[in-house]
Design brief:
Helix content: 10-25%
Number of domains: 1
Strand order of the largest sheet: 1-3-4-5-2
Radius of gyration: 16 Å
Number of strands: 5
Number of helices: 4
Strand content: 35-45%
Largest sheet: 5 strands, antiparallel
CATH class: Alpha Beta
């Protein structure tokens, strides 16, 4: 089985992302990952705002695990690699890896759920599922 296609988002570590020692504060890896997922959606023409306005649903993180391997530091250029590893009626599983060059800094497992305006799980809109097709290859 081949690894699913990935979306790559590049960002930089700014002063606001770090602690007094110039090391990225652990919660900011979640922000980098969120931006990676958001930019993956943008790359296929989907935004959270338009999805909510047009279909009445949006994504919310249901589960997230993060293994911190090495610290990122002030001014580092980071790559956030986002891959969809599974998709069901209302949820999408993703694997995200944050790297500095070839060095892996953090690995995340994220499940997002499609939610209605009322906070209830909802099916992924067909147009969004179709737009995600390039990233869904080889997933369950």
């Amino acid at each position: 089985m081949h690894e699913p296609p990935a979306h790559l988002f590049r960002t930089r570590v700014y002063w606001e992302d770090t602690d007094a020692a110039g090391i990225v504060y652990y919660a900011n890896y979640l922000r980098f990952a969120e931006r990676g997922r958001t930019e993956m959606l943008r790359s296929i023409g989907v935004t959270q705002a338009s999805m909510l306005a047009e279909t009445g649903v949006a994504f919310a993180v249901r589960r997230c695990t993060c293994e911190y391997i090495r610290p990122a530091r002030l001014d580092d250029e980071l790559d956030v690699d986002t891959r969809i590893t599974g998709a069901r009626a209302a949820t999408i599983d993703m694997r995200q890896v944050i790297r500095r060059g070839e060095e892996t800094l953090a690995e995340l497992g994220v499940m997002v759920v499609c939610m209605s305006r009322h906070g209830r799980p909802a099916r992924l809109p067909p147009a969004v599922r179709h737009a995600l097709a390039p990233f869904l290859a080889n997933t369950a």
